[in-house]
Amino acid sequence: MNELIKVNGLSKTFSLSAKQQKLEKTKEKKKTAVHNLSFTVYEGEIFGLLGPNGAGKTTTLRMLATLISPDEGDAVIDGCNIRTEPEQVREKIAFLTSELKLEDFFTPNYLFHFFSELYHVPEEAVEERRKMLFGVFGIDAFADVKLANLSTGMKQKVSLAISMVHLPNVIIFDEPTNGLDVLTAKVVTDFLLDLKKQGKTIIISTHIFSLIEKICDRAGVIINGKMAVCDSLDKICAGMSLEDRFFELYQQNAGGEAE
Amino acid sequence: MKGTVFTIFKKEMFRFLGDRKIVFGTILLPGIMIYFLYNFMGDALSNQLSVEEDYKASCYVEALPQELSGMLEQGFAIEEPSGKTPEEIKKSVREKKTDLYIVFPENFMQAVSEYDAGKETEKKAPLVEIYYNSSEPSSTEAYSEATMLLDAYESQMANKFDINLGSGEAEYDLATDEDSTATYFSSMLPMLLLIFLFSGSLAVAPESIAGEKERGTIATLLVTPVRRSHIVIGKIMALSITAMLSGISSTIGTVLSLPSLMAVDNSVNTSINGSVYGVREYLLLAVVIISTVLVLVTLLSIISAYSKSIKEAQTFTMPVMILVLLVGITAMFGSGAKKEWYFYCIPCYNSVQDMIGIFQFQADPVHILLTVCSNIIFVLLGIFVVTKMFHSEKILFNK
């Protein structure tokens, strides 16, 4: 199988402000969010990053999306290095996280055209893609309504549709169903499965076991910034449920820091 | 580059011009407010400071000499202080019931004729005391008139030479409308223009940069393949145009209402207006304004990029605003624009000096070129700094 994403020893440490030190109840001035993380994602698979809050999932994905730089290590996505070719990497991926917001002032239609221009989507293809993506997420009826007047679920759908304007081969979604109602969450899951059928390579991060079990081919469990295990679901679970296996791994790797 | 910069620029322009609140509050309202405010201030001050033409000031005169009575009775409603003590009359002036209280010494005319200013003697000149109330316009005007009449009488007694005799001041004042306009516009407008342009920039820059950081929408732009520098340039261009529209609106309001405001000062030639300037002056002014707006927007963009929220950006901007205000105030002092070239390398100050030169019909194209070049260098440096800031995780994502 073709290795489409190759992550090599990624590490990231953040400085903690006094406020953050207080929140984290620590006197340490630095916090290692991700430590020497390596994994591979093969073309056409859905790879899940599973871990508790604060494990380093989002930081890992932000580094892959070139939003932040790693302190050590690097990654190659579809032949482009995140350190040396960040713009090319961004052209090849769709990245979505709850941190990324769309301006409430604009309508889905306007934003779709705006981002299409930024991704250099050929003019003749924009309308076709808009119809297809807005159709998938049921945005058509709200296409000319300002985002400020849309529900949270609809905003999330608009974000998903807009992140796909350039129909990239690599999709990186951080907690894609977080905060969504069951109906919207199902639309998103079905969409991801449909993308897989189209041969796209997908990484999702989540702490929802059922989502991993339902759609992922392989997964990596991150605990305290380190990869505890990374393999196919069958091998990770070894006859146990994913949930039970996760807690077992957590006990082994958390070093008594169970929340 | 052109494509993505223009896409960002278009989106920012649509954001500003598509929002009725921003269009009205930032672009139209300042001009309208300034026009009505200055006109209102002008009218109110005129009403407060002027006295009706046929008004005769009420005046108590003590020991009025026969020789002066005719002259004073022409301009004042003279009353005899019969039965009233000096303190009572002063109280009446203090309470604005009487305009003046003039006290001549006893045998004033004789004392005057006996006094010789040329001789060294212990005898002092006769003293005429005039009590008035400076908080009452009619009293102040009556005081000026009485002083002028008595001064004229004193001169007439010595009469060695005359100055501008028998003619109105206008015949001797050789200032043209252009001169009057130049004097007032060059002292007032550079400061006002700088403030208007700064306010226009302040209304949009924090919203566009610190606001996007605060709302998390800047990160959405940063995960696209667009270069950070293109985002910065696109934003600065759009912010500059919006700030300039706001500045133009305020300037139109000011130019239209300034004659009304200045008419308060009687010494000002009321025919001053912006039409004395030609196409050349307005073109040069436009060049200076464009480069100034770019400087101000870049400066505020740096502050906004550093700030975590709109509120923080506005707080950080306050010291800069005071500094810009002080630079603007320098236009009100000194005579004319600076001649030394190095003053034109200091952003903001160079704009003020250029504006003084333009409004005084003495604009030096070399100075303006120097201003534009140094401002462009400042803007390029600013774009570099903001781009660096847009690359910094600490600045962009540290909450």
Description of the molecule:
The complex is a heterodimer of chains A (259) and B (399). Chain A is α/β, with parallel strands linked by helices and 259 residues long. Helices cover 39% and strands 26% of the residues of chain A. In chain A, strand 9 (218-223) and strand 10 form a beta hairpin. The longest helix of chain A has 16 residues, at 182-197. The mean pLDDT of chain A is 90. Chain B is mainly α and 399 residues long. Chain B folds into two domains: 2-46 and 176-397, no CATH class; 57-172, D-Maltodextrin-Binding Protein, domain 2 (3-Layer(aba) Sandwich). In chain B, 67% of the residues lie in helices and 4% in strands. Chain B contains 16 helices and four strands. Chain B has a four-stranded mixed beta sheet, sandwiched between helices. In chain B, strand 1, helix 3 and strand 2 (76-79) form a beta-alpha-beta unit. Chain B is elongated and about 100 Å long. The A-B interface holds A 15, 17, 65-69, 87-88, 90-91, 95, 99-106, 110, 114-115, 117-120 and B 3-4, 7, 11, 14-15, 18-19, 212, 215-217, 219-227, 393-394, 397-398.
Helix and strand arrangement:
The complex is a heterodimer of chains A (259) and B (399).
Chain A: E1 3-15, H1 18-24, E2 30-42, E3 46-50, H2 57-64, E4 72-77, E5 80-81, H3 86-92, E6 93-96, H4 108-118, H5 123-137, H6 152-163, E7 170-174, H7 182-197, E8 201-206, H8 209-215, E9 218-223, E10 226-232, H9 233-237, H10 242-253
Parallel strand pairs in A: 3-8, 3-9, 6-7, 7-8
Antiparallel strand pairs in A: 1-2, 1-4, 4-5, 9-10
Helix pairs in contact in A: 4-6, 5-6
Chain B: H1 2-17, H2 20-49, E1 57-62, H3 66-75, E2 76-79, H4 86-94, E3 100-103, H5 108-114, E4 129-131, H6 137-158, H7 169-172, H8 177-208, H9 210-215, H10 217-222, H11 228-262, H12 279-306, H13 310-329, H14 349-359, H15 365-391, H16 393-397
Parallel strand pairs in B: 1-2, 1-3
Antiparallel strand pairs in B: 3-4
Helix pairs in contact in B: 1-11, 2-8, 2-11, 8-11, 8-12, 8-13, 8-14, 11-12, 11-15, 12-13, 12-14, 12-15
